[in-house]
Design brief:
There is one protein chain. By secondary structure, this protein is mainly alpha-helical. The chain has a domain of 26 residues. It is 24% helix and 0% strand. The longest helix is centred in the middle third of the chain and has 10 residues.
Length: 59
Amino acid sequence: MSGYIEGVDREQATMFPDRLEARIGKDHPVRVIDAFVDELDFAAAEFNRRAPDQTGRDG
């Protein structure tokens, strides 16, 4: 058992013929938001109060 469930990779193919990444324009504002969130340090912001249990996700 891996300990807890991890998020899905954004590069993963969807049920559509092309990837979701291909449907979002290169100049779409969501790319700025995505880059901003990727740079956030959640541990420094104290979002690490509880570590996931070895048996699954937190309640």
